[in-house]
Amino acid sequence: MTELIQNLIDGLGRGSIYALLALGVAVIFGVMHLLNFAHGELITVSGYVAYAMFNQGWSWYLVAPLIVVVAIIASLLIERVAFSLVRGASDFTLVLTSFGVHFLVSAMFVMFVGARVKTFSEPGWIADTIAIGPINVEVFDLVVIGVTIVTLLLTVAILQKTMFGLALRAAAADFDTARLMGIDSNRVIRGAFALSGALAGIAGIFWLMRAGNTAPSSGIDPMLKGVLAALIGGLGSMRGAVLGGLALGVAEVVLRSQLPGEAAALTEGVVFALIALLFIFRPQGIISVATAERV
Amino acid sequence: MKPKLLLSMLAAFALLAAACSGSDSAEGDDGGSSGGEAASSGGLAVDIDAMLAADLDNCEPAPTGDPIKVGMAMDFSEVVGFVDIPGSKLVPHVANLINCIGGVNGSPVEVQVEDVGGDATTAGVAAETLLDGGAQFLIGPPFADFALPILQATDGKVPMFVAASTEPSLADAANNSFLVTFDDDGQSRAAAEWALDQGITRAFVFTQPGPYTGTNPDNFAKVFEAGGGTIVSSQTYVWGGDTDFSAQVAELSGILEDNEAMYSAALAFQVTALRGQLEGAGFSNITYIGTDAMDATGIQFEDNNEGIVHTPHVNIQPGDRNDMLLASYSAANGGEELESRGFMPLYVDSLLLGLQGIVDCGCTDSEGIGAAVAKIDGFEGLSGVITYAGTNGIPPKAVPIVQIVDGKDTVVDTK
User: Residue B34: what pLDDT?
Assistant: First the structure.
């Protein structure tokens, strides 16, 4: 029982990062109907910038906000040079474009920076724990969960209390009608990419802190987790994305710990099997979103 | 896309690339070298010291014989590009140095490089391209996914050196396929024996079933238990990916006594991440032992690396022959520092072994060269002494046991 509680806490920490990633995926999907497989590249780019700055002697306190800024800029840049050119194209074209961006960014880092993993120091406190009876709670998990809660509250505030949020929600509900109502589509889409980039940047801080390295393929894992979590939660649903992220994180940790012996190596496979089961009984994911034609 | 936007994107990328690659020099290995004079089973193909002393601005008259053609089928993907990319840069440089001192028996050495393209089909095509170009022997990629299609393309008739590989299944002297270093059985056996020598009787392993990631810990466990030790736990993980080991640490917390050895083929950053998390859970006396992957991914530059043990191929020391060769490359290429320094002697030795085969057989046909390579005995290369005679293509090289002491690689034993 103790181990299970330990697993749940660890899983919530991991799942919080997935939730932030999934939320970024959901924001873009809501507005553009784009399942963005290039989302993880925001972390790749941020990781290399972080690596460069660490080599200049910067500390995590300086690098962390820079990661968010870089992720926002990279997100806007990708929208401008890739997705804006195929806006209005079929969903399939958009997905292929996002794959193209993913492979292009990865290949450019291999060609121009090198294929070798670039390592940097994790913060000194990352492995610190607080003992609560027999449970060891990682300070890192507490920080991640705390920052995720604050970020989610801020995101909700932006979506509920600002004109941009209103426009974004209107566009997500029905993009064409929103445009007819005078909403500037370019502004909404750019705003969505900026918000998605900021969420990826915050997730990226923790992802990179935990990893302590970056590589050309660093974006694959966060991209997969973000997209999967968004799918589990119900594509386009912000609340679903958060729930999907948390569920995925907890499932991974609990399964890896509880599957017997070398069967634990099947964790990823079992997770996918569970997701397949979920989609058999609930194809729309945890939370349903009314579909609408997008740009 | 607007040209101005594209230009600014490329410029930003170039700046980032410069910032990142500029510090690569700080990442290289600073381990030591096997040193020693080049020797051969027949006449000497290349005088390594003379080659290292070559001045590319003041070469001897160019060799005029028929060129010796060497093919490099390299994997430039993220998986092993960190060794194959620098290896494919260094070997042509070494060919230039050899040509600068008169070539091999008056023949210049020509190197053609092909990317295996990240899939088996392209690997086969790359091999065909090299063979069509006249390659007399090949230097191949380290993993079986691409090396085996190349062997199919050569039909086992052209010698291939899998330079950076420790995969025992790739060694097959009958099919002209040769490792240049010890294999996984060798390095994991050496690690287990060293752990037992230290009086460690309990160990746990991290494994991902499959070649390398699974065979190394599996063989470690076998040797460790055969030597009287006990494997208290076998944990699974995602090699090259996982850095959050909280699930495994939670399980291990109920098993460990804090006097165990931990063995895996994990990358450097994974081992230090695991160590941090185990220390956070109160286990600070674990002995961490890893494979050559630790050297490839820069364990020397990780935080919290003190005391970690690994089994690199070559321990380069400042000023030794490997260091001189890498400095020579850097000087000839605008200061570019190659990654994965500890693996580079394996690529150079692959070239030198092929050339030695040509000299030993006094022939130029691939089958004759392969037969001569299979008889090589006591070849003193840059990575150590290499013998193929009487083997299936795995040279019985000594495995250095290296420990990080005061932040630096220190050879503590050789097995």
Answer: 31
Q: Cβ of A14 and B248 within 8 Å?
A: no
Query: Which pLDDT does position B4 carry in this prediction?
Result: 54
Q: Quick check: ipTM above 0.90?
A: no
Does residue A292 lie in a domain region?
A: no
Please report the pLDDT score of residue A132 as a whole number.
Answer: 85
Percent of chain A with pLDDT over 70: 98
Superfamily of domain B184-312: Response regulator (3.40.50.2300)
Give the predicted TM-score (pTM) of the model.
0.78
Contact flag A212-B85 (C-beta cutoff 8 Å): no
The DSSP result for A204-258, as a single string, is: HHHHHHHH-EE-TTTTHHHHHHHHHHHHHH-TT-HHHHHHHHHHHHHHHHHHHHH
User: Packing angle between helix A60-81 and helix B3-21, nearest 10 degrees?
Assistant: 150
Contact assessment for residue B292 and residue B311, using Cβ atoms and an 8 Å cutoff: yes
Instruction: Give the CATH number for residue A68.
Output: 1.10.3470
pLDDT digits (tens, 9 = 90+) for B334-359: 999 998 889 999 999 999 999 999 99
Measure B357 CA to nearest chain A CA, in Å.
32
| B298-342 tens-digit pLDDT | 888 888 899 999 999 998 889 999 999 999 999 999 999 998 889
The minimal CB distance from A52 to the residues B13, B19, B82 is found for B19
Domain locations in chain B as residue ranges: 30-54+63-182+318-397, 184-312
Distance separating alpha carbons of residues B51 and B357, to the nearest angstrom:
18
DSSP state of B393: S
The structural domain count of chain A equals: 1
Residue B112, strand partner residues: B71
Domain B30-54+63-182+318-397 coded CATH 3.40.50.300? no
Alpha-carbon span B301 to B26, nearest angstrom:
8
- Put simply, the answer to whether B78 touches A115 (Cβ < 8 Å) is yes
Q: Which residues does residue B262 pair with via DSSP β-bridges, in sequence order?
A: B204, B288
| Pairing status of strand B109-115 against strand B68-74 | parallel
Whole-angstrom Cα distance, residue B363 to residue A42? 55
Q: Does A80 touch chain B (CB under 8 A)?
A: yes
Enumerate the β-bridge partners of residue B384: B381
Chain B residues with beta carbon closer than 8 angstroms to that of A265: 207-209, 236
